[in-house]
Amino acid sequence: MRTFKDSAGREWTISMTIGSAQRVRDLLKINLMLLEEGTPPLMSRLGDPFLLANIIFCLIKPQADEKGITDIAFGESLGGDAFFNAHMAFIGELSDFYQSLTRTDLVRTLAQMQVLMKGAVARAEAKITAMDPTKTLDALFGETSTGLPEPSASTPSP
Q: pTM value?
């Protein structure tokens, strides 16, 4: 079982079982037992944040029902870090489940997905950090600017 906290500080436990996979199948018509099937394959669609939030909600639905949390309220509580942590918890739990079924091919695929996601975030952060706003504006507009305007009194500085 893997846990994560939402933006409201509530802790959720993802537990992947045949029963929870059946709940996802019944509610969303998505079969987590067949990641490599479909057009496109489900595995390739797990990066869709809306689909992923719905899958995670189905997995934690009994807990949400106990707490009186709807799918909409749950989605509202998945801001940035909370969503990323929920995503990692889901992939980790799914990997553990497949490991117990001796589906090492899917375990390796899920591990690579995690590495790729973390690497993509790190590269994007590095690229944005290295970006020079003046040079970017010059490239976009084809002119040399004298720099960004100073913020007005009503605009807070970053």
A: 0.69
Mean pLDDT of 90-108: 80
d(CA 91, CA 36): 15
Q: Which two tokens stand for residue 37?
A: 């099937």
Q: Stretch 128-138: mean pLDDT, rounded?
A: 84
Beta strands, E only, the chain: 2-5, 11-14
User: Number of helices and strands (H, E) in the chain?
Assistant: 7, 2
Which sequence spans correspond to the domains of the chain? 2-141
3 state SS of 83: helix
Query: Are 24 and 58 spatial neighbours (Cβ–Cβ below 8 Å)?
Result: yes
Task: Say what the pLDDT of residue 153 is.
Answer: 64
CA angle 90, 109, 27 (to 5 degrees): 40
Residue 20: the pLDDT is 95
User: 31, 37 in Cβ contact below 8 A?
Assistant: yes
Q: Which residues contact 40 (CB under 8 A, 6 or more apart)?
A: none
Cβ contacts of 5 within 8 Å, gap of 6 or more: 11, 12, 82, 85
